[in-house]
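Long-time lurker, first post. I've been practising inverse folding by hand and with some scripts of my own, and I keep getting stuck on stretches where the structure tokens seem ambiguous. Below is the full token string for one chain I'm working on. Before anyone asks, I'm not after the true native sequence, just a reasonable design that respects the backbone. If someone could post their per-position residues I'd love to compare against what I wrote down in my notebook.
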């Protein structure tokens, strides 16, 4: 244990001889008793010493000129820091009981009369020195205990944070595990349907009606797989800030009405009471992304509302905002889950049979898209089985008059352009060649970029469909080489890619492509793009 500071004794006496005698007497025991002796010639000098030091005991002469011993004692004890210093009065005069009472009232602990008996003095000051040393040791222990308490508190707070972080990570990992399991479920279901339908088509004795139904199943489930991939990619882009909005003034109520019409036309809302109350409200936003928000909110309501339930969709203006509200009478949201419904990979527990499907990332995407539009999204629920309400707020703009749509360009019905398809995936190349052939196009196919360049040189097609992710030289390089060659520079180029970010579109256009399509490509969209890119020579 570190050595404690030596206690100090203050001797106060106006008589130089008496002061010398007392300090000398105390000094001979100082080393043995481990204390230090200080002297003062007056009450004022004593007060200055008390301001600078802490004392184990003060030997104070009663009869001093100016400020006597009683006044000095009163002044010493009036100060908070020195209020508890024990004072032993020393006097050459015989003190009566009133003097003793006055001394004790001023904080005296004892009286000594001169001449002082050394043994008595040593016995008395030893008690106070030992007490001072003990007090100092206790203070030191208290400081150490306080420091240790502070350290333990900090350690406890750190451990608490680590425990909470670990619990949060465990929740996130559990949510991710559930998400991956759900992703596997959502992917296997359409893949199983596609596989079964494809096998059915090849079986002998299958009726024409059965073949048609199988084809529709393949088409429908392929679109479902495409939506799953789009959701995953959109969430990734939104979280990384790579979504660029194509903003334009639009009426939110009209967009929501179109979305509701789609749900009714496809039968997705047939088993529910779907009520709408839509007031016009103009915003500046990306119609595709806003439709995605509306669809995800409706999907969420359908997923967690039992059949026969009620879903209310409203839009209105509120000060500087346009508001979209989707309220359902479904399973509701618990108080524990409510703050996390917009977190990634979080999904509520539902007792439904999950006929609506979904990955549980729709609400996360909704929040991010709302924020990208400068808006916000909130969730409310009174608790389990009491429904929920999602409220979207977007900044309002002044009513805009839409410009008249440009007349559609007419596509030639015959003299169709000759096509070159450069695609390294064998199945994809074969299917697209067959599909384009069924629409009356003459198609030359190539399995990589170099073969495609050679086919373009010899066949001189009017239009080339080029996959970006080709082995050897990629689609960008194919486009650059075609544009650099005078014999092929006028071929119309359409990029086929699985990448749909704004950066990908920029690279495609810089490489020399005319259009950019993201896989899987819808056949109607492909026909429209081929028609818009068809050379003038083949138009009527």
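-- Answer (accepted) --
I ran through it position by position. Result:
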């Amino acid at each position: 244990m570190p050595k404690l500071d030596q206690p100090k004794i203050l001797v106060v006496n106006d008589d130089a001889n008496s002061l010398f005698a007392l300090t000398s007497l105390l000094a001979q025991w100082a080393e043995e008793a481990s204390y230090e002796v200080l002297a003062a010639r007056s009450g004022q000098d004593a007060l200055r010493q008390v301001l600078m030091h802490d004392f184990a005991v003060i030997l104070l002469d009663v009869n001093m000129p100016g400020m006597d011993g009683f006044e000095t004692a009163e002044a010493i004890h009036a100060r908070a820091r020195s209020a508890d210093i024990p004072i032993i009065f020393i006097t050459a005069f015989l003190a009566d009981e009133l003097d003793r009472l006055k001394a004790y009232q001023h904080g005296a602990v004892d009286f000594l009369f001169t001449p002082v008996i050394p043994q008595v003095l040593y016995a008395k000051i030893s008690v106070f020195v030992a007490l001072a040393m003990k007090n100092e040791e206790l203070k030191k222990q208290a400081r150490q205990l306080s420091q240790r308490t502070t350290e333990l508190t900090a350690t406890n707070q750190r451990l608490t944070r680590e425990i909470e972080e670990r619990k949060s990570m465990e929740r996130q990992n559990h949510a991710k595990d559930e998400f991956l399991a759900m992703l596997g479920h959502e992917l296997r279901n359409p893949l199983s349907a596609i596989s079964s339908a494809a096998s059915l088509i090849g079986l002998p004795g299958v009726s024409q009606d059965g073949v048609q139904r199988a084809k529709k199943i393949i088409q429908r489930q392929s679109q479902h797989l495409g939506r799953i991939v789009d959701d995953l990619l959109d969430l990734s882009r939104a979280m990384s800030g790579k979504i660029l909005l194509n903003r334009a003034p639009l009426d939110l109520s009209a967009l929501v009405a179109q979305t509701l019409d789609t749900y009714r036309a496809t039968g997705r809302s047939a088993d529910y009471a779907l009520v709408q109350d839509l007031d016009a409200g103009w915003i500046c936003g990306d119609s595709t992304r806003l439709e995605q928000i509306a669809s995800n909110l409706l999907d969420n309501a359908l997923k967690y509302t039992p059949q026969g339930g009620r879903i209310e969709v409203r839009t209105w203006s509120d000060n500087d905002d346009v508001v979209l509200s989707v309220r359902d009478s479904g399973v509701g949201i618990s108080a524990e889950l409510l703050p996390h419904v917009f977190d990634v990979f979080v999904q509520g527990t539902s007792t439904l049979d999950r006929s609506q499907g979904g990955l549980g990332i729709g609400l996360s995407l909704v929040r991010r898209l709302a924020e990208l539009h400068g808006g916000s999204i909130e969730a409310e629920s009174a608790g389990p089985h009491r429904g929920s309400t999602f409220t979207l707020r977007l900044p309002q703009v002044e009513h805009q008059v839409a410009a008249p749509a440009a007349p559609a360009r007419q596509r030639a019905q015959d003299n169709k352009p000759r096509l070159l398809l450069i695609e390294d995936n064998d199945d994809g190349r074969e299917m697209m060649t067959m599909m384009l052939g069924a629409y009356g196009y003459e198609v030359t196919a190539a399995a990589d970029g170099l073969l495609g360049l050679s086919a373009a040189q010899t066949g001189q097609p009017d239009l080339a469909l080029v996959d970006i992710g080709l082995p050897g030289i990629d689609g960008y390089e194919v486009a650059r080489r075609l544009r650099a060659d005078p014999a092929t520079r006028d071929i119309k180029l359409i990029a086929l890619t699985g990448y749909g970010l704004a950066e990908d579109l920029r690279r495609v256009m810089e490489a020399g492509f005319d259009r950019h399509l993201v896989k899987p490509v819808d056949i109607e969209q492909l026909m429209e793009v081929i028609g818009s890119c068809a050379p003038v020579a083949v138009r009527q």
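A couple of notes from the structure itself: The domain at 419-538 is CATH 3.40.50.2300 (Rossmann fold). Residues 142 and 148 are 10 Å apart (CA to CA). Happy to go over any region you disagree with.
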